[in-house]
Amino acid sequence: MNNQKLLALIVLGIFLNGCAMTDNWTRRETVTAAAAATCGIIGGNLSGWINHNNGHPLNEGKAIPAGVVGGALLCGGLAYLLTPEPPPPPPPPPPPPPPPAPKPKPAPPPPPPPPPPPPPPAPKVERTIILDDVLFDFDKSNVKPEAGAILDRLAAFMNENKASRVNLAGYTDNVGTEAYNQALSERRVNSVRDYVVKKGIENSRISGQGFGESKPIADNKTAEGRAKNRRVEIKVE
Questions:
Q1: For 19-37, b where at least 16 C-beta lie within 10 A, e where not — what string?
Q2: Which residue has the higher pLDDT, 56 or 164?
Q3: What's the CA gap between 75 and 83, in Å, rounded?
């Protein structure tokens, strides 16, 4: 029995020394060592007890170590096989994704198109009314009723179109002196101007000039041509 006690103390010392070294062991290695030590103690005691009571030919000095080794191998091997390996540590988390690149600033909107150019001014429309010799008494500047009817329509048009203006030009034939004809053409222009002004048209909207016998439009050698040259032209703008 002294040998058994000595063996138990030796195994216990080995077990305690192994426990002090298990700080760096895995769980499988720790369980295997604990099972081997426990079963070794049990096996050694059991082997020594059987040998002592049954008169086994092995002495206790050999039976106990054999039981220790056998129990340690048996239980240690079973513990090693039955104890699962601990799962590997999880992989480190992936690094955080890089921050998204800043969005490019939107391009500024294109400038608005320039306004279209203003339309060209409407062409000036001129209408010319010719008061010939038939509408004036011979060698007179008084406006005859036939000419008055035409001038009434002219005054009505100018009253409706406030922006309209007229230009008067008086002409004569070449009968008589040049000075006389110049004065006659100016009197006829003034007669037409006075008539239209009396109808309510501002004097500033009427311009006029006498040209005498200059600028004939027909041959002064014939009576018909001279009649065409005795005229007042009214240009309506």
A1: eeeeeeeeebbbbbbbbbb
A2: 164
A3: 12
DSSP code of residue 136 = B
Cβ pair 228, 202 in contact under 8 A: no
pLDDT value for 119: 80
Residue 126 or 156, more confident: 156
Q: Which of 172, 168, 169, 170 is nearest to 139 (CA)?
A: 172
Beta strands in 64-201 (DSSP E): 127-132, 166-171
| Cα–Cα distance, 219 to 230 (Å, whole number) | 12
- Locate all alpha helices (DSSP H) within 55-177, ordered by sequence: 60-82, 145-160
pTM: 0.46
Q: Which tens digit of pLDDT belongs to each residue from 133-188?
A: 556 666 777 777 877 888 888 888 888 888 889 998 888 888 889 999 899 889 88
**Site of tokens 């077990």:** 15
Task: Give residue 146's identity as a one-letter amino acid code.
Answer: E
